[in-house]
Every structure is written in C-alpha cells, then in structure tokens.
Amino acid sequence: MSEITFSEEEKKELAELQQKFNAITVQLGQIQIEKVDIDDREKELMKVFVEARTTSKDIATKLSEKYGSGTFNPDTGIFTPDEVPNQAPPQEGQ
After folding, report:
1. Would you list the DSSP string of 75-90?
2. What pLDDT score was predicted for residue 15?
3. Which residues pair with 79 in a beta bridge?
4. CA–CA separation, 73 vs 56, rounded Å?
5. Rounded Cα–Cα distance for residues 75 and 44 (Å)
6. What is the pLDDT of residues 44-72, one digit of tens each?
7. pLDDT tens profile 29-42
8. Would you say residue 77 has pLDDT above 70?
9. CA 34, 40, 41, 43 torsion-angle sign
10. Residue 17 in contact with residue 6, Cβ under 8 Å?
11. CB contact set of 79 (below 8 Å; sequence gap of 6+)
C-alpha cells in the first residue's frame, strides 16, 4: 500500500479542526466542573433555606402563643390581632 502525503492546506485544515475539538473538550470539562460547583452551592443554599424556614415557624409559633393569631405588617412593625367573635357572657350557675 502506498503512502499519501497531504498537502500543506489539508494538514492545516486538520490541525485547525483538532484545535477546535481540543478547545471544545476543555470548555465542556469546565462546564462540568461549574455544574458540580453549582450543585454544591444549591445544596448548601437549600440547607440554609430549610433552617431559615424552621426558624420562621418557631418564631411564628412563639409569637402566636404570646399574642394570639393576627397579622404582622413588617413595614410598620405593627401586629393586628384577629378579631375574636363576641361570645355570650357565661350565665350564672353554669
């Protein structure tokens, strides 16, 4: 079988194509590393979110036990208790 020598132009085209593939491979590797970093950050943020949600529920329970149910306006800092329907006063002997 005889050997064929590519022209300089053909060799240049093949070298450029190989360089493109190498660059793409490096970029794909970088993207995969970034995905791992993003996944790690997401897991950490979800952990912090769950902790904050638990703290929020704990505070709401504590305040509800202290002040009853109602609405808090964070802009004014004012808590407005829910209206309790009027109850008939207990009758004597009951």
Report:
1. TTTEEEEPPPPP-PPP
2. 98
3. 72
4. 15
5. 30
6. 999 999 999 999 999 999 999 999 999 98
7. 999 999 999 999 99
8. yes
9. positive
10. no
11. 63, 67, 70, 71, 72, 73
Q: What is the CA radius of gyration of the chain?
A: 35
The per-residue pLDDT for 1 is 81
| Residue that has been written with the tokens 């190989």 in this structure | 18
CA-closest candidate to residue 66, choices 79, 56, 77, 75? 79
Based on DSSP, count helices (H) and strands (E) in the chain, helices before strands: 1, 2
- In this prediction, residue 43 carries a pLDDT of 98
Residue 73 and residue 54: Cα distance in Å, rounded?
Answer: 20
Q: In this structure, what token pair is assigned to residue 73?
A: 């306006």
